[in-house]
Every structure is written in C-alpha cells, then in structure tokens.
Design a protein that fits this description.
- There is one protein chain.
- The longest helix has about 50 residues.
- The chain is elongated and about 110 Å long.
- Helices cover about 35% and strands about 10% of the residues.
- The protein has 2 domains: about 270 residues, no CATH class; about 30 residues.
- It is α+β, with helices and mostly antiparallel strands.
- It contains 5 helices and 8 strands.
- The strands form 2 sheets. A 5-stranded antiparallel sheet has the order 7-3-2-1-8.
Length: about 350
C-alpha cells in the first residue's frame, strides 16, 4: 500500500541474477550474509501492480532516526527531510510540520528523506497482514509537495553551481569542495563529475543529466557517506534487483538500524555476483567443450550405423541390390491383389 510503513529484510539468494544462481559458491556465500530489518514508508509503486507476476516492485523511503546527514557535493542538505510524529523536541530546520501517520511510530525523532530511498521488489503473496501505520491522502499530498520542493531545490543548487563553474573556470577558489548549501551560487571543483542521475525510477530530478554511476562490486564496501550517496542516487539499471520480504509489524524492530547498512548489504551481493563471473565463464567454456564432444561422439555413432546399413560391395552387393529391386516390384504387384481379397469386401 502506498504510504504504508513497512519492515523489509533483504533476501540475498533471491536477489542474485538467474545466471549467478547456477553458481553453488555464490549461493553458499549469500547464505552466510546477515540481513537486518529496515523500516520505511512506501513512496510509490514501480510500474503497475500485477497480482499474477511473481514479484512486484516499489520505492521505499528509509525511516531515519535524527536529521539525515547531508552531502554538499551532491547538493543535499539535512533540511531536505520530513519529520514524522512523534517528533523530536527541537523544531525541524525547515519549519515543516511533522507527518501524522494513522498510528504514531514507536520511535521518537524520526525523519524521511527524498534522497534516502531505494527500489526493491517483493514476492507477490496473498497474506493476512493488517496495515497499522499508514499516511492518509492528506498526509501523502503534504509529503509529495515537500518531496517536489526538495528535488527542485537540489536542481536549482546544481544548476547554479554548474553556472558558477563555467563562469569561473580555473579560479583557485574553486579547488575547495562544497561545504555550504545555504546559498544558491555554490562553487564546485573544476571538471568534477556531478553524479546526479536521471531515470524514470531514480531518486533525483528528472531534468538532471545521467552521468557516472558507481561500481558497487569494485568498491571496498560502503565505507564512506560519499559511496552511499553514489548508490542511492545512481540509476536503478546499475544496481542489483534486490528482493526483500515485507511486513507491517513494527514491533519486530526494537532499534532502527542505519540505512547505510542496507547499502552495504547490496554492495556485498554485488561483490558476490562479480566474483562469480569468472567461475561462470569457466563453466560456460567447459559446457561448450562438453557439448562439442558429445555431438562428435553422436555424429560418429550415426556414421557407423549408416555405414553398417550399406550393402556389401562386389558380386554379393549386386545380388543384394537386385533382390531388393525384385522385392519392391513384387510388392507393387501383390499388394493390390491382397487388398481385393480382404474379408468383407463386396464385388458388384
């Protein structure tokens, strides 16, 4: 349900692509992974819901305890977030009123952010799982309005920084990274790659360019906030299709885990798939060679069988061929007579 608060747990084996599932070592490595329970709100569906599909996908915004950390080089500030009741004692930096779910959350001082969102799929199951905590239509409209405002602000900051970079190319003042998002005209490093990604299912504004996306398998895990935002803002086509189990029972989660751990779990799955590629390539070459060997063996047996059926050469061969012709000629003469003499045939 859109707007529902859910608990999701990654299924590492179901998240492997079909080819990697054929690798026993990759499956065994996924069985050793420990998956945490993460809490979030369903922002929207990915595509139309199909009850006959084995899986359906959605966008989930993680529930963050405390104001989320910003990322200046991505033009994301901590104020680009939305508080949820029960709110923290301090008012939100953007003066936004907290969202009011149907049931207050069991944790205090929680936020959701447009940029802390992931695409995930879940098996299509028919279960009795009542939804206790959900945002109604009014709260969803408020949430979507602030979401669009955050995207628009990030886009404005990005465009202003791009103009500043073009106008002041080569200035020594641009060597320092962005540290302040309060203003609009922000300097960036000359030639830096603005990794904001545009995609129909991405988490960033639609008009921003699609540039560099991270290689999760090549990185040493998600050991920095920069890599985590690289993952969160990258195109879904560059990420593994994560499969998770969903639940609406919030009582199973005592403490909210860090959503950065979700990114680290995805990076571990991506690394397992990357390490399986050489083994799969080797197995593919072996299968091709084995198929060629079996085909050659079958072809040789076929040739031996056909050669064995050939009539012998010399006088015996000529007699055999003559006998075959006489047999066929006799069959053409005798078969019509036998059909006339079949029992039950009436002659006029």
């Amino acid at each position: 349900m859109i707007g529902a608060c859910v608990v999701l747990t990654i299924d590492p084996i179901a998240s492997l692509d079909p080819e990697t599932l054929e690798d026993p070592e990759a499956v065994a490595a996924c069985k050793k992974l420990v998956s945490k329970q993460y809490v979030g709100f369903v922002r929207d569906r990915v595509g139309l819901y199909n009850p006959w599909d084995p899986y359906n996908s959605c966008l989930v915004e993680f529930l963050l305890q405390g104001e989320p950390q910003g990322h200046p080089n991505r033009f994301i500030a901590s104020r680009m977030s939305i508080p949820i009741l029960p709110a923290a004692d301090e008012p939100h930096i953007s003066s936004r009123s907290p969202l009011e779910p149907s049931t207050p959350l069991p944790w205090r001082g929680c936020y959701i952010s447009s940029f802390w969102a992931v695409r995930v799929r879940s098996p299509t199951l028919f279960t009795e799982d009542p939804v206790d905590c959900v945002l109604d239509r009014t709260e969803l409209k408020k949430h979507h309005r602030w979401l669009r405002a955050d995207f628009a602000e990030q886009q404005a900051l990005w465009k202003a920084a791009e103009r500043a970079r073009k106008d002041c190319r080569g200035s020594p003042d641009l060597a320092a990274p962005v540290q302040n998002l309060q203003g609009v005209k922000l300097p960036v490093q000359p030639g830096s790659s603005l990794d904001v990604v545009s995609d129909s299912q991405s988490n960033s504004p639609a008009s921003e360019p699609k540039l560099h996306t991270p290689n999760l398998a090549a990185s040493n895990g998600m050991d920095s906030m920069s890599k985590i935002f690289d993952f969160l803002l990258s195109s879904p086509s560059t990420q593994p299709m994560i499969t998770a189990s969903f639940s609406h029972d919030l009582s199973t989660v005592k403490e909210l885990p860090d959503p950065a751990d979700y990114c680290r779990e995805v990076a571990a799955i991506a690394r397992i798939q990357e390490e399986a590629k050489p083994r799969l390539a080797k197995a593919r070459i072996f299968a091709i060679k084995e198929a060629a060997r079996l085909n050659a063996e079958y072809d040789q047996r076929t040739v031996d069988m056909l050669v064995a059926r050939l009539p012998p050469r010399g006088p015996l061969g000529r007699v055999s061929r003559l006998a075959s012709k006489v047999k066929k000629h006799a069959a053409r003469l005798v078969c019509p007579v036998l059909r006339l003499l079949r029992p039950g045939r009436v002659f006029a």
